[in-house]
Amino acid sequence: MAEGAIDTTTTSTATASPRDGLRRPALSPSRASDFKQCPLLYRFRAVDRLPEVPTKAQVRGTLVHSVLEQLFALPRQERVPHRARELLAPTWERLSTECPEWTELFAQDSSAAVRDWLDSAARLVDAYFELEDPRRLDPQACELHVETELRSGVLLRGYIDRLDVAPTGEIRVVDYKTGAAPRQIGEAKAMFQMKFYAVVLWRLRGVVPSQLKLMYLTDGQALAYTPDEPELLRFERTLEAIWEAILRAGRTGDFRPSTSKLCDWCSHQALCPSFGGTPPEYPGWPEPDPGEESVLDRAD
Length: 300
Ligand code: SF4
Prior knowledge:
InterPro entries: PDDEXK-like_dom_sf, PDDEXK_AddAB-type, Restrct_endonuc-II-like
GO molecular function, one term: helicase activity
Helix content: 40-55%
CATH topology: Lambda Exonuclease, Chain A
Keywords: ATP-binding, DNA damage, DNA repair, Exonuclease, Helicase, Hydrolase, Nuclease, Nucleotide-binding
Region (Disordered): 1-32, 278-300
Bound molecules: iron/sulfur cluster
Distance between the termini: 25 Å
Organism: Saccharomonospora marina XMU15
Number of domains: 1
Shape: globular
């Protein structure tokens, strides 16, 4: 898709209106991925809402995503590596104030270790500039909240890192990946997330995105994919089937563990029967909104 001037006239979201001030239950890409990976993990996160201690890599991802969002708020000529790096320290200061529990991750660290961690965030920011020149484009939106209701009544909700819209109307969905997990492990999950956004945008705007672009800042590589309408239609059926399965499990409380390599990244092994643990008593289906994404979900 051509880079350049961007159509800024389209509204950023269209949503089903909340009923009685409550948000309707919706499927997000993170929670749908959780359920696909392991129904019990979905339950722990979306139903029990067990707290999870973020990793330094997740917090760094949030920091880098925030810096890249702010970068596009600068005039084009200022979108250069040193300006982006200058944003890191004040952004970390702000995030530390908003989420003081994150600073506990560094409680035992020396100031040199914290500096090293900030340097590792700076390297991710630098890697972004190896992949594209932000002075050549104006995104229509960054950190865009999107929500749409499928004809089946399933509500889809999520946040898109960046949305580019060409003057010709072509849509590009961009997602930055900063996670520590090996890329091969995360790639299927990342593509699932991108197709999720493609379905939401297709249903919101009537246009199939012409490109889904993943930018891997850990290894400085990008992956671009072009979806088509029949594929998104099939994917829509998949999302509906996942939501049906979630509701079925939600009624009975039957969320089974499903082990995989990804268990290494699961915070809840101590409560998982596959690892000798016992889950807490099923608390029942949460209302109004199971599965809301956290800021950390959005910065993997
Ligand atoms: S440890 Fe693995 S099987 Fe158990 S809840 Fe976590 S992801 Fe599921």
